[in-house]
Amino acid sequence: MIIVAFLGNPGKKYARTRHNIGFITGEFFSGENGIKINKKNFSSEYGTGTICGHDVLLLFPQTFMNLSGQAVKKAMDFYRTEHSSLIAVHDEIELPFADIKIKTGGGHKGHNGLRSIIAETGSPDFHRIRFGVGRPDNPQMDVADYVLSNFSAEELEKIGLVLPEVSRLIISIISKN
Questions:
Q1: 111 assigned to active site
Q2: CATH architecture entry for 2-176
């Protein structure tokens, strides 16, 4: 089983915040691939399906970002999934807005969702899709406040244009597993 963990915070309050770009991406990806997110387990909402001949689980942890690793570990343990079959999709303040990068392994760079996954699963050796949300324009603004701020209408429009490419990148990782 390949697990694609879309990181974010549960609840309408956070639905369109920068920290929830993982959830936003997951909503698009699940729709594009006909996978309904209609199950609850692993402290998550999730759906399963087949992509490129591989069984996949699309996971939306409901533990809040800083505890994402708890949900990811439960799913990995249940399916006996190796780290090489885990893809985490998350916000990245170190990338300019709407820039997308793939990374495998490495540290968490202060991202608490990644920090939690690494701590809970015992390894940083998993795939990441890093979705750039940029840094605040005002250097005095607290990073936590920034990532919990809502996207503007213009930013949401640009995200919509980038999501098909993110979807292709996720599929490229799945197809190589």
A1: no
A2: 3-Layer(aba) Sandwich (3.40)
